[in-house]
Amino acid sequence: MIYQSDALTVERQEGDIAELRFDLQGESVNKFDQNTVNHLTAALDAIEAQDGLKGLLVTSAKPVFIVGADITEFTSIFGSSADDIKGFTATNNTNFNRLQNLPFPSCVAINGFALGGGFEICLACDFRVMSSAAKVGLPETKLGILPGWGGTVRLPRIIGVDEAATWIAGAAEQRAEAALKAGAVDAVAAPEQLRDVALTTLRNAIAGKLDYASRRSAKSSPLPLNDTEAMMAFFTMKQMVAQQAGRNYPAPVKAVEVIEQARGMGLEEALDVEAAGFAELAVTDVAASLVGVFLNDQLLGKKAKSWEKKSDKAIERAAVLGAGIMGGGIAYQSAYKGVPIKMKDINQDGLDLGLSEASKLLAKRVERGRMTPAKMGEVLNSIDATLSYDGFEDVDIVVEAVVENPKVKQAVLAETEQKIGEDAILASNTSTISISHLAKALKRPENFCGMHFFNPVHAMPLVEVIRGEKTSDKAVARTVAYANKMGKKAVVVKDCPGFLVNRVLFPYFDGFSKLLRDGADFQAVDKVMERWGWPMGPAYLMDVVGIDTGVHAGEVMAEGFPDRMKLDFKAAPEVMFENQRFGQKNNIGFYEYVKDKRGKPKKTVTESTYELLAPIVAERTEFSPEDIVDRMMLPMATEMARCLEEGIVGSAAEADLALLFGLGFPPFRGGIFRWMDTVGLEYIAKASEKFAHLGKVYEMTDGMKAKLAAGESYY
């Protein structure tokens, strides 16, 4: 043994070859935490001190290679200076340079995910052999930063500027076939042959059959582009990347700029440019937010897995009540993810619509080459469309997705309870109706909970699992396990009107209604909020959700929280509803919708909207973008703070992710609590005071005031 630690080992293989094997103890994956970085330094010391070595094989003892840096360590650097951040990247840059400059060739066997720093160490090796089951990539721009251990330097010099810029800016994982075609790896092998192929490659390099010196020279030299070629290439790339990334995500464009700036430099100078770019991005609010989203997602995943472990029974058969678009979407998602499902409706037209929805979604996958026709048939066959309860005694969970009416839901749930096994779970896909209220119709309320999907089911990741007063841990655990199986992000919340997401969405909509009442142009509000980062402004969002649905849900919320959500004026959505303008579902709401060439509804402005609103709104008034944002966001922020303080949601992290996954909250802002931390509670307090006349929903909660007084933040 040449070197041994709890992160990696180095030992001789076949006399003159050393094997550097990553195996981080106590972890399911290898990652470059500070401990591993330090041990790699020591391991390289030991390798360089050895006599008689002729080659180095780099491997992983785990099913994956290395997933990258330890992101949990990133949070400590966000408040640091640029010099401190450069120090964070410097140690491993020195390690990778030493690895690249060993006095003998190196070859890495990539047996699983090699991402970020895990791929960057591969780029520092002379030869790369990849398992056909592995994936490689540089995903750093997804976190608001750029590769910090030589990725922007070595990759362009290995696979060319265009391809490297696309990989880095796009942050996508690359399969073995694509990596080989691009030249990022030298060979692809079946998993069981990977080690042998890597050793053979290394021996050929030792024997002089493969030239590694010229490879090293290319990685350490300027890019082979003249000024004209460079100008044209980088101008085009930056334009394309900027258009795709959008104005709120600076990292992809910065990564291309770093490659451009370092194009005429050698390795050391180019790494300095990369380090400066990394440091510049690392101190941005965007990076803090996106890294926060990543860490929150890990926390949410752990919580969901923890609930799944508590489940005493696997979910193998499911059922959904109510077909149509929502029922069909649930049936599709369940069947596609491997859980056969019965889809029941009271009429054949509903079943036909549900099956049509599932077929349409599957056909799209086939068209895009993501599914074979045979697999599509298999998935469709696992959806059993039925008008009866035959076979319901064998299902493990039933999701009720009928019309949003408490009496109808209670009747359907009570009837269904008699047709299923005593141990089966009943769940309601309700968006606003109290789970505890619905449970009053049931004999086994402990086996009942909410399972609120967001529309469209296949596209929206979030599922709210709602615990009623009598819901058991068993019901929650099995429902979360089912959500996990469906590939959804489950957030467990307590019962209240609107639960979590809709409870905070409707104060946001009320803020919109008050702006229109006071003379704001709905188009102007949409544009400001879209520029702020929302995928669609409030008027457009109402049209997509359905104004009839929104008005009905708004009434439920007003009844539940009359001190904050009962409006004392006629609101714009009511006017739209009274005039049968329901949004996209009947092609006219705030906007009018005409189908484009692809058959998708395209919004256009109609003067009739302004004519209908004229009797209930003030004279047209110009509001500053700052005031529009504050008037829209403060109600959402204060209501979410109440949810946290009341224990409706377990943590700020879960609350923020619920808005990201359920509403499309701008990821670069991290969530509502991350946004409040970014602007500061002092700013929130001033805005709250400024708009206090608009009602209690603009008033800071006691918990918010306490945090402000103590100088605390949510993260």
From TrEMBL:
Transmembrane segments: none
GO molecular function: 3-hydroxybutyryl-CoA epimerase activity; delta(3)-delta(2)-enoyl-CoA isomerase activity; enoyl-CoA hydratase activity; long-chain (3S)-3-hydroxyacyl-CoA dehydrogenase (NAD+) activity; NAD+ binding
Alphabetical list of Pfam families matching this protein: 3HCDH (PF00725), 3HCDH_N (PF02737), ECH_1 (PF00378)
Keyword Isomerase: yes
Domain of life: Bacteria
InterPro entries: 3-OHacyl-CoA_DH_CS, 3-OHacyl-CoA_DH_NAD-bd, 3HC_DH_C, 6-PGluconate_DH-like_C_sf, ClpP/crotonase-like_dom_sf, Enoyl-CoA_hydra/iso, FA_oxidation_alpha_subunit, FadB
EC assignment: 4.2.1.17
Class of this enzyme: lyase
Keywords for the protein's UniProt record, in alphabetical order: Fatty acid metabolism, Isomerase, Lipid degradation, Lipid metabolism, Lyase, Multifunctional enzyme, NAD, Oxidoreductase
Pathway of action: Lipid metabolism; fatty acid beta-oxidation
Gene3D superfamilies for this protein: 1.10.1040.50, 2-enoyl-CoA Hydratase, Chain A, domain 1, NAD(P)-binding Rossmann-like Domain
CDD domains: crotonase-like
Family to which this protein belongs: In the central section; belongs to the 3-hydroxyacyl-CoA dehydrogenase family. In the N-terminal section; belongs to the enoyl-CoA hydratase/isomerase family.
Protein name: enoyl-CoA hydratase
Organism: Sediminihaliea albiluteola
